[in-house]
Hints:
By secondary structure, the chain is an alpha/beta fold.
Amino acid sequence: MYVKGIGPVKADIISEDLGLKKVEDLLFTYPFRYVDKSFITAIKNIVPTDSVQLRGIIISKKIIKGQRQSRLTAMLKDGSGMIELVWFKGVKWIEKSIELNKEYVVYGKPNAYKGKYNIAHPEIELTEENAGLKSNYEPVYSNSERASKMGFDNKLRRKIIKQALTHVNISSIPETLPQYLVEKLQLIKRYEAIQWIHFPNDTSQLNKAKARIKFEEVFYFQLKLLYSKNERRYKYKGHSFDSIGNYFNKYYKEKLPFELTGAQKRVIKEIRSDLGSDQQMNRLLQGDVGSGKTMVGLLSMLIAIDNGYQALMMAPTEILAQQHHKSITESLKGMGINIAFLSGSVKGKVRNEILRLLKSGDLHILIGTHAVFEDPVVFDNLGLAIIDEQHRFGVMQRAKLWKKGKEKPPHILVMTATPIPRTLSMTLYGDLDVSVIDEMPPGRKEIKTLHKRDKHRPQLIEFMHDQIKKGRQIYIVYPLIEESAKLDLADLQQGYDRLLQYFPAPDYKISVVHGRMKPKDKDIEMQRFAKGSTQIMVATTVIEVGVNVPNATLMIIENTERFGLSQLHQLRGRVGRGGEQSYCILMTGHKLSKEARFRIKTMCETNDGFKIAEADLELRGPGDIEGTRQSGGLEFNLFNIMEDQNILSSGRQIALAILNKDPLLEHAENVILKKVVQSLNDGKINLGRIS
Ligand code: ADP
Ligand code: MG
């Protein structure tokens, strides 16, 4: 960055900490907040609520040496009173920069301390410097401690941006939307938006700038997603699985353990027609817990094998992947299909042998955890990849998988039980075709969900005895949160010891599974429970997804208040998988937060995964979205998925409408759209880089 006052060392720090390399980067990194400079609070009117803006003269300053660290205090005086300003960091540098008896504008949050107010680490700025800027809204940018200490603060940053903006016009910040869209949507021009987002004169300008930038981010995100889909469809061919051959037919006629539900049949038809066309399938299969997605996956894999291709099934946890491996191996016994299991815990010779067989084409099906995506895992000819129970398998992850194909990308089927709220699915899965299993296998009874407290334990124990007498099995789940992992484990141990009193050996057998166990040991315990050798399974949430033991009819969740909604729904889905009446008991302590009560109420009221997903998003809000961001699915500067849902759907609608008429953006009026779309990376919307 070549700017007066920023030498190479500072430039390095700024680039390292804030990712700002060029002046343009400053222009396209937006303020996270604005200070309304038109409103000044008199010091005597300060109340300890939000941040305030003060204007006064700094009449004294001193550094007070402390034992561990020094602090800087300064007195700010206006016509109404005085207040102390305090700094604990960057003390020397700030002390040097404060000029006594000059007027400052000060912004910060007042704290009451010993009957007086002070403000720690306020933003301060000389009034005269400030006077040159007309705007009432002063932008505030996020900064790093280091950068601000060496003088790259809001003040300097505003100055640089202000200066850069004086040269800005339509040719330096060219339009990125076609004229017809700008007009139709009554948006402001891009270069105006950039000016106004930094220095709006009033709220109306600020809102217009935000509207334009947010729309653009969302619109291009959707356009990129849908355009890439079209491009794949038109340009790149997929494998065509033309024959429904021996494996499929033999299994279907001779081995299918039950009649498929109507929904399963419909979905398999949809998948078959995708696989049989010469276009690559990218399909999302949604079906609530227990709706029978695994069978759909299995049949799809048989189609791939019938056509001479290999198939892959990935599950997010070791236990689930193991379970799929066991059950699928069992189902396909005697059919001459070679199946292997791969996870991080498969090592050495065994691993090498699997990789060899995979590459030579001798393996038909690989089942495993994320480990199957690693580079050394090379297929001979991967035709179909199934991703099970992956709620966050975004564009980026799929792109990685496409590369596992040889000449053509494999067909992809993503299976999920957690119905994703529409907003999320539009962004994460906006380019997928969707199949839905909206019907449960016959004979299923609705799971009865009840909320109970400690005082009900005696009845609960009795009820457990009851279920076991009927030959059923029981899960008891304890929360496990990383920071308090030890404590939680102690909880589980205690619960287990207590159980032993009521369910003593040798009449009763209890399994224990938790995250600290070796995968192998976990698996042994899981298998004992699955086979019915043990009646009770005490576990942490490792059994959360996918695990299938139809004979289990009672799910007891301890410390329910510590689980999220979608997690609870997943856990509950471990029972109710056979024909018997199943129960889910939510145990809690006595005191519950409002939120916890809402979660429990939702669980007791409904079994509908969609309703639960909506309630969950409502509750967790942006916290959840963070996770989404980390998964590499989304990257927006200004757009906020929670607040801007309207913009999201209108952006998607408009992108869809444009591509409907012009699937590959070849019309003259869409030249600009194509240029922008092609300059964007998958999953990353950084419109600052476009020029
Ligand atoms: P999920 O959709 O949660 O992955 P699974 O595929 O694990 O569900 O199926 C849940 C249970 O229902 C399994 O025990 C499975 O064998 C059984 N199942 C699946 N489809 C049917 C069907 N059409 N009829 C009867 N049982 C079925
Ligand atoms: Mg499943």
